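Here is an idea for our session: we take a single protein and study its fold together. Start from the sequence, derive the backbone structure tokens from it, and show both lines together. Once you have written the record down, we can walk along the chain together:
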Amino acid sequence: MRAIVIPRHGPPDVFEERDVEERRLSPQDVRVRVEAAGVNFADVMGRVGLYPDAPALPYAPGYEIAGVVEEAGDRVPPSLAPGTRVVAVTRFGGYAERVRVPAYAVAPLPPSVPLPVAAALPVNYLTAHLALVHVGNARPGDRVLVHGGAGGVGLAVLDLARPMGIELYATAGSDEKCRLLEARGVVRAVNYRTTDYEVALREATRQRGFHLVLDPLGPESFAKGLRLLAPLGRIVCYGFSQLVTGRKRNLWHAVTTYLSKHKVNPVTLMNANAGVFGLNLAHLFDERELVTRGLAELVARAADGTVAPTIAATYPLSAAGAAAAHTCLHDRLNVGKLLLVRGA
């Protein structure tokens, strides 16, 4: 089959289309023809060589897909029979014609959910739900700050938080993004490129601080986030996009920034009555019940309209399309989800 692979670490134009060998199915697997694949910042970090979980080069990135089951193992439930439209969480390999996935990481789709919409759900919405509800324990009336509010996870948080009675604040990388977020119900959005958001948010909350800070950025924002917490506040860290500062990897920047600044002192946390939690969705893929239940719930909510992912742009499922999508994501130009779509 054809796959879009990273042959070497580098800028977005390193992607190549290659013929790769398909893996044999186990009795618990399905093979899915990929119609749409989500593009995530973890893919960018893998491309530049800063993602420790990435397979050996060359490999096809991609954590989430939607498509049609082409083949099913002997022990796969009838609900995932060949011909079924599905959404799936993948452990790499999503940028391809077909992908092998364990059945527990696949959910059937009702006709009302388009395949591109489904492909925009798993990574962003599972991360947002776990960070906001499962780990963050956000409750009505809480003040919640989400960094990168106009990105895929940020907008998923906004979507999930809307019916919860949460007072939501955000940072974003442009005035336009901030206006969009406030138009969607964010109390105050701050352009982190032009404004000291720590000062601005202290003023916006009248020095009361936040019950929860959701942080995909990294060391510098983490330090500010601790200072912005209200007593018994929590930070959930689920990314390090600040480590990617150029089109190629900069290991010196990553090591010096991460190791020298990103430190947590238990005594400091106790004295501040603050909590810190790390969240890596990729390391939860073996939690079968969590993945199965989460996908099923997301599909049900997409079907009834209670969640609606914002799709920023679609690109062809090709090396050129992957390069264009990564350029957009790398430069923080998107508002919402970027997808690779067959035939786009």
The longest strand covers residues 29-39.
